[in-house]
Design goal:
This protein is α/β, with parallel strands linked by helices and 103 residues long. It is built from 2 helices and 7 strands.
Length: 103
């Protein structure tokens, strides 16, 4: 399935993005979050991949895997857009208010 034009437009115009993985992530969730983050950066934006849990050591071989922040870290992000990926489903985008991630 093609990515909806609105999602493409939001990714192209994103300046500050938080990509989020679900709990107990597997390789496709981690790879999807990294891919969106890298695409945003390639287009001139800033991106931070975040995972609900620590990234499992089994995925340490993945390029850029060390970039993930986890909820164990205290982070604050200003005016972001969230891009959610899930397996082979279409990327979705939504406004993301200023959050504070906590333990």
């Amino acid at each position: 399935a093609a990515v909806p034009a609105e999602v493409v437009a939001r990714i192209r115009s994103a300046r500050n993005v938080l990509t989020v993985c679900h709990e107990n992530p597997e390789a496709d969730a981690l790879g999807s979050a990294l891919a969106v983050a890298l695409a945003v950066e390639h287009l001139g934006g800033r991106a931070t991949p975040v995972c609900a849990d620590e990234v499992p050591q089994v995925y340490a071989f993945m390029p850029h895997i060390g970039r993930f922040l986890s909820r164990a870290l205290q982070c604050q992000f200003a005016e972001r857009s969230a891009y959610r990926t899930s397996g082979n489903r279409t990327v979705t985008a939504a406004p993301f208010p200023t959050p504070a991630l906590s333990t």
